Amino acid sequence: MSSDQLPSMVKCTTRHVRIFAACVDNGVLVPVNDKLTLDVDPDNEFLWNDGALQQVQQCFREQVEAYGGRPLNDYNLRRIGTTLENLIRQLLHSGVIAYNPDGRVMNYSMGLPQQDTPQPR
């Protein structure tokens, strides 16, 4: 992605993904025009494993590469964020990740959790 000037930090915030045109320096986001930084599930709504996080990060890298050369703007970042949200939904529905029962809020933003139902006898 490219941008000639960034008047302020360009970002995309969805329910479970935050993307910033910034880098992290000593724990602080510093606006830059040549790097995107990803924050996955900032509210800890889900229980993650390394494999699931790696899938989201890999998808992010692929999306950034696919959008290479396009303007670094809210619209393109939102499209990347939406793609990542869809992947997170797939991971949840396939049982790769689960809702965090110790989460701050249980709002089931991606649908009610799947429960095993007893089979009739």
TrEMBL record:
GO terms for molecular function: oxidoreductase activity, acting on NAD(P)H, quinone or similar compound as acceptor; quinone binding. Keywords: Membrane, NAD, NADP, Plastoquinone, Quinone, Translocase, Transport. It is found in: Membrane. The keyword Heme does not apply. One of its GO terms (cellular component) is membrane. It holds the Pfam family NdhM. It is a peripheral membrane protein. It comes from the Bacteria. The keyword Membrane applies. Its main location: membrane. It catalyses: a plastoquinone + NADH + (n+1) H(+)(in) = a plastoquinol + NAD(+) + n H(+)(out); a plastoquinone + NADPH + (n+1) H(+)(in) = a plastoquinol + NADP(+) + n H(+)(out). PANTHER family: NAD(P)H-QUINONE OXIDOREDUCTASE SUBUNIT M, CHLOROPLASTIC (PTHR36900). This is Putative subunit of NAD(P)H:quinone oxidoreductase. It comes from Candidatus Synechococcus spongiarum.
